[in-house]
Amino acid sequence: MPRPSCPRCQRPESHCLCPLIPHLASRTRVLLLQHPSEVGHALNTARLAALGLENAELRVGERFDDLAGSLSDSRYRACLLFPGDDARPVAEVAGDDPRPLLLVVPDGTWRKARKLLYLNPELEALPRVTLPAGLTSRYRLRKAPMAGALSTIEAIAAALDILEAPNRFDELLRPFEVLIQGQIEAMGEETFRKNHGS
């Protein structure tokens, strides 16, 4: 019989993260597009990000037929947080126009995120923005596929720190860090060190 879980954070009730999830305001709107394979993941950081930000929305799927309406909201400038040859630093893009950004963030493995772009041509058409080089992930349970690779929630917090400066979004990462620490404790320190280094 499955353990009862919290309907909001979807963690087991005994490990509910809701008391740690902040309620942060931002001018920047965040639209998270989550590949369905991520929904059941123990570390569903896109969900945590959406719950912690007032101006965020999480949609789950592979094809998003209603994207055009969201992307054409004239109050915002839509851009895609995803690397690419023509991607510009997010700090540079922030000063282009007084309107805040609509930051579209695909959530999934790199392969699944690329599939979301392929299946939704509106995403491919968006200007791309990237984070500064040299950021280090706190995601100690997963080997980064490339230098500077961050989890979804870390990438959003880093982007908002830049776009909304001097406001900081460290609080967004609190439930994420507790979640990771819980996973490490569950596997045991020795197993963690053996598999993931010190």
From TrEMBL:
It comes from Metapseudomonas lalkuanensis. Residues 2-188 form the DTW domain. Belongs to the TDD superfamily. DTWD2 family. The lineage of its organism: Bacteria, Pseudomonadati, Pseudomonadota, Gammaproteobacteria, Pseudomonadales. Its EC number is 2.5.1.25. It comes from the Bacteria. This is tRNA-uridine aminocarboxypropyltransferase. One of its GO terms (molecular function) is tRNA-uridine aminocarboxypropyltransferase activity. GO terms for biological process: tRNA processing. Keywords: S-adenosyl-L-methionine, Transferase, tRNA processing. The keyword Transferase applies. It holds the Pfam family DTW. It is an enzyme of class 2 (transferase). Transmembrane segments: none annotated.
